[in-house]
Design a protein that fits this description.
Layout: E1 8-12, H1 17-28, E2 32-37, H2 42-45, E3 51-55, H3 61-75, E4 80-83, H4 99-127, E5 131-136, H5 149-169, E6 174-181, H6 187-200, H7 204-212, H8 223-234, E7 245-248
Parallel strand pairs: 1-2, 1-4, 2-3, 4-5, 5-6, 6-7
Amino acid sequence: MGRLDNRVALVTGSARGLGEGIARAFAGEGATVVCADVTDTTPVASSLPSAKAIQLDVTDPAQVDAAVADVVRDFGSLDILANNAGVSQPIGTFLETTDETIDRVLSVNVKGVIHCSRAAARVMIDAGTGGRIVNTASQVGKAAWPNWGIYSASKAAVLAITQAMALELAPHRITVNAVCPGTMLTDMTRNGFGESAAKEGADVNVLLESHIKTIPLGRLGTAEDMGLMCAWIASDESRFTTGAAFNLTGGENVAF
């Protein structure tokens, strides 16, 4: 018996990285998983026991509404939403950041969470059986890093909307929580450190290894770590937890 047996989960941004880790953990706990991304999620979905791949741009509210309606039509319910779709920013100060970058980061990271949560919450409320919403935030949403200001702002907004949604949806037995990953073993991390290394004239591997030494648990986080935490939040074991923002950082940059 899995902790998520007989539940249907939609995981955005699940073509790779942390989203793939979430999808795999949900499927491993017995959920039927809908893998959604702007890029092809078929390789991930086809490797899971009960999953479907869809293409989804979370910045398009009409597309989100249609996707959620399709999930309910195909599987009968939507019990879990993992808002993981997100984009980073080019490394640079807020003074250097273009309007196009600001609009893109806020549109995906903030408005995307709102679009998906709004659509999912409506069907969860109509079903009357409760539900789980899990939002991917970041440690830099709690304590900003220089040269990551717009991304930090977007993730701080995710934390704020998580709390607001938790309060508003509690009467419907829908819990809303956030996970704040630290430095994770993902393409986004590799690209970010690559940009920093190029600016500093340093070797990216040396820069990354130096950073790992500052993490108290001595390693980068993984997609599996992310999946394990999200599966717990999505399960009945977390039924009295809502409005929380869980650190997944190995002790890095500890903030409340």
